[in-house]
Amino acid sequence: MPIVLAFVVVALLLAWWLGGPWLADFRRRRVAEAPFPAAWRRILRRRVPYLRRLPADLQMQLRRRIQIFIAEKPFIGCAGLVVTDEMRVTIAAQACLLLLNRPAGGYPNLRQVLLYPNAFIVNRVATGSGGVLRDERHVLAGESWSQGQVVLSWEDALEGAAVPGDGRNVVIHEFAHQLDQDNGPANGAPSLAPGMAGARWAAVLAEAFAHLQALQRAGEPSLLSHYGATNPAEFFAVASEVFFEQPAQLAEAYPALYAQFTAFYRVDPLSWN
């Protein structure tokens, strides 16, 4: 009997291990095969003009990604906000840009999207001179938490989608952090695409990061927001915004960085123009 029981337990565990991923893939295929709602198409045309640049095959892939994202990731309204399909589709479309040509199941650690009507305030404890602790209030448009949440201001997410060529997009920024957090705390070293060399990635980003820091210290203007000089994680997120929204400028100013991002994101936005 113990041998039979052990065999049954092993068989059940094996079935669970195999069935879990299989069932997830099955559900995603079912969701992606459903017709894309006409109302969602109208939302994309009205709210996310950037998507018109994409080739037809990537637009089709993106729509499938949006359907899966909305089916799997709950949106939770905060500060009295009632979440609508317009909000879900607009944000999902921008977040899923970062998943094009990747395997199914993007953002595996993301459990929910928290949505505020506009910029929100967070209180944090900071260490001042002499080690004195002090409370600080920060007004934010977005945050990405390693515990599985992305927090966004709907007003800022909407503006980021409406102005697609300014290199500023809070949704791309925070979901780049999510990719960075797939393998641990955000540090500018996300899990790379197959065939990419970690040493080359680190060297290229370190050089571009140092250049941005030098511009920031000198008070000189830069294609990349000076906020990216804060640390490597913020540099990666800021550069991701510019990669999608201002690819020609990024390729000219930082050609090696652009090449690394093309390999990492598995798309070449320059070819969409």
UniProtKB/TrEMBL annotation:
SUPFAM superfamilies: Metalloproteases ('zincins'), catalytic domain
Span of the signal peptide: none
Cross-referenced InterPro entries: MetalloPept_cat_dom_sf, MtfA_fam, MtfA_N
UniProt-recorded name of the protein: Zinc-dependent peptidase
Any GO CC annotation of this UniProt entry: cytosol
Database matches in Gene3D superfamilies: Collagenase (Catalytic Domain) (3.40.390.10), Glucose-regulated metallo-peptidase M90, N-terminal domain (1.10.472.150)
Coiled coil: none
PANTHER family attached to this UniProt entry: MTFA PEPTIDASE, PROTEIN MTFA
